[in-house]
Amino acid sequence: MYRGAMSNLRFAQSLTMYEIARSPELSTSDGQNTVEELETARQEDILRVLQLFPDNKLCSFRYGSPGHERQLRRPAFLTL
Amino acid sequence: MTDRYSSVLPFPKACIHYLNQYQVSIKDVHIAGCHPYELVRKSRQNITTHFSADAKSAILVEFLKRLKPLKSLNIELPGGWHQFDRHYWDTIMDPLGDTRVSTKSLTLAGCMPRSFRAHFHKMFNWSVLTSLSFFDINLWLMQDIQFDVPDIRYLVHFQCYTLDSIFEQDTVMLHEFFRVNKCLQRILLSISGLARFPVATPEQVEIDNPTTVVHFVL
């Protein structure tokens, strides 16, 4: 099921990513990670999503919260 | 309706570099929270970007200089402006030189200091503009456009959301603005005091092809 869904990404031309946040309590076992480490982990999360798509297929990319919303969403939420 | 995107957390630099390297076909890019320069590429046709730095004016001007003709440009200026911005617009002579940004649709969201008004109308090739949207602006910006930009004649869509209050002289300005833009089909207004000083709609001034006119009254 998962593999089938991912294979469909090769047809995707548009990607919208809502804000991806990583909260300290969810991302660490001891709660001692630095802000830099958490930010690095967040960056890696986003990169992992981007790397799912074949090269040079996307025509449209959006990142952020639509409208005036400023709430953080987690985990990554995609609309294709 | 014009889409807007906001972001609390930045879009990581490594991620926009990845997109620029491996997704070179992206025509539409709408990212809140990365450096605006990173979004400028030959393939781009529709761009949304935020200018969230403390001193955002110089970055805005440099960004505009780098742009190729676009279908749409959405400029977000969250967080108000800084004293540096006021100094910038007070002292700069001709920030873009002969360059005019060409876009069919322009959205400007956010305030700039009042000295910005003397430069804003020189930044764009208004004769190609068909859609103009303002969010959270000061109403005086509209006045300058009306009086200093005779090339705005072909708007189909106009949208203005502001917390500023409208006064009687503003209604005259908007009335004239609607009159000269004879192609307007959609108008969205959210202006404080509009109920006390209603603006003459295109129907009342006999614009040729009005189809949908919507007023949001605060």
Average pLDDT number of chain A: 70
With strands numbered from the N-terminus, the spatial order across the biggest sheet of chain B is 2-3-4-5-6-7-8-9
- Spatial separation of the terminal alpha carbons of chain A: 17 Å
Q: Count of helical segments of chain B?
A: 6
Number of strands of chain A: 4
Radius of gyration of CA atoms of chain A, rounded to a whole number: 14 Å
Q: Outline of chain A, from the CA principal axes?
A: elongated
Count every helix of chain A, treating DSSP H or I runs of 4 or more residues as helices: 3
Average pLDDT score of chain B: 84
Query: Which series of helices and strands of chain B comes N to C?
Result: EHEEHEHEHEHEHEE
Which percent range describes the beta-strand content of chain B? 15-25%
Low-confidence stretches of chain A: 68-80
DSSP strand content of chain A? 15-25%
Helix content, binned percent of chain B:
25-40%
Short synopsis of the structure:
Chain A has three helices and four strands, in the order H-E-H-H-E-E-E.
Structure description:
The complex is a heterodimer of chains A (80) and B (218). Chain A is built from three helices and four strands, in the order H-E-H-H-E-E-E. Chain A has helices at residues 2-7, 24-27, 35-50, and strands spanning 14-17, 60-63, 65-66, 78-79. Residues 68-80 of chain A have low confidence and may be disordered. Chain A is elongated, with a radius of gyration of 14 Å. Chain A is an alpha+beta fold and 80 residues long. Chain A has a three-stranded mixed β-sheet with strand order 2-1-4, with no helix packed on it. Helix content of chain B is 25%, strand content 23%. The interface between A and B is medium-sized, with 29 and 27 residues. Strand 2 (60-63) of chain A pairs parallel with strand 2 (28-31) of chain B.
